Amino acid sequence: MVFQAGQLVTVGKNRYQIAGKLGSGSYGSVYKANDLNEAREKAIKAIEGVDSDIQEVRALKRLAQVESVQKLFETFVFAGHVCLVMECYLADLGSIAEKQHFSQRLTCKVGFKLIDILRRVHYFGVLHRDLKPENLMISFDGRKAELKLIDFGISAFFMDQNRQIQEVRGNDYKFKVAPYSSLNMSFGRPVTEHDDLEMALYLLMSLRKLNPFIGGSTTEKESFHKSPELVLHGKNKFLLSLTHLLFKQQTTKSIHYVEMLQCLKNSAKFNEKSRFTVGFGKRISLH
Hints:
The protein is an alpha+beta fold. The chain contains 8 helices and 13 strands. Strand 2 and strand 3 (28-35) form a beta hairpin.
């Protein structure tokens, strides 16, 4: 472990007291820390290496204007690790969905907010490439709850800062056969905005406890692309219109975010301007 619970870390004038470990993955470990100067909780992600000019830092800096993306406060090097000090959130959708039923309306509302976030992320030329319920967090300040997109560790730029298109390499990610990766990614092909949107669809399906690609095989994904109605039927049929639209846009190589957002609104009536609410009890719930 890079940090121990109770450890005091001083970075210039800032002081962080480590509260404990939140989790870990192939790209680093995340700790909860108390910012003693600001009297608030923050998250510190520790990534092995000493070069702070890493893709996640570059992506977060480029997306600093996007309110629904995790905010980066500062970086520092500690014990052979690059440490990113970021906003800390209440819970992720993956852990909430394990214990809560996501209605059609709530699922479509999450999808609406997520696609709107991706619209803004893509505007700045960034592909996330790792969309799953665990990377969509709930922030809550005692008054309002919002969705926040985190973990840009394997993100990529498809536009430079002058909005000129640039090539994205294929097969430079480690999880190409993961259940939540797009069909293109499963084949190791270069990723586009369409792949983020396809992964967003799989995220919504996961919230509904619908996981047809558990084995990670490309065969199931190819079948789903050809006949999504074989999976999206009954109480999950409401996602079929969005699926057809996404796959149609992939074929024509066009992206119409407004059309996708309207499709979700038509699938389950909800007020897109209303904020989410959080319930506290034996478990955290989202409404």
